[in-house]
Amino acid sequence: xxxxxxxxxxxxxxxxxxxxxxxxxxxxxxxxxxxxxxxxxxxxxxxxxxxxxxxxxxxxxxxxxxxxxxxxxxxxxxxxxxxxxxxxxxxxxxxxxxxxxxxxxxxxxxxxxxxxxxxxxxxxxxxxxxxxxxxxxxxxxxxxxxxxxxxxxxxxxxxxxxxxxxxxxxxxxxxxxxxxxxxxxxxxxxxxxxxxxxxxxxxxxxxxxxxxxxxxxxxxxxxxxxxxxxxxxxxxxxxxxxxxxxxxxxxxxxx
Length: 255
What we know:
signal, Iontro_rcpt_C, 5-stranded mixed β-sheet
């Protein structure tokens, strides 16, 4: 056999070994898609480290599963596409369970209750959802906040609805006076209210109750069942409650 043929065969063998090695690493690592500006569920701290309730919760679940975890910031408006393409293994960052999303992904059991609320500045005269008539509203693009507003009767009465890549930008426009209110997850709203006391207030009613779950790619029932078993263990041994106490001062995890 010619020397060049041997070189080709050896090169191919090395490539196969490399592919197998990479595959093994991937199988032992859960790549989790997150919105890294969704405090307190998953966000960057002052050191630019990704932290939050869902970050700790996912890390603990991965440990139960004997896996490593990698958090991948994504464009939240493309989250289902990222999952279906295989670029991420899970959507796990305050991901609301909806009937529309159930057609695209598999969901774990709900692990936390939430609701969509309207946030205004503390000195705003607005007090109820009905008073949003004709007002300028902001929300995160392709979020459950958008779904909640669309399904509420007040949607037909508001003035303009501006969409933002994330909640931080929406709240910034609220503080600058370009918006009258922001529709946002209650857990997120209360987190920012705790950081900037006296800046915001919530209107009296919520738009819609909801629940958070973890999204798994369609057809990945084995991964879904393995993950759910890990989550059940975290609830049973008190780990989930401990993580919740750290971030919320109480146990908000659903059993």
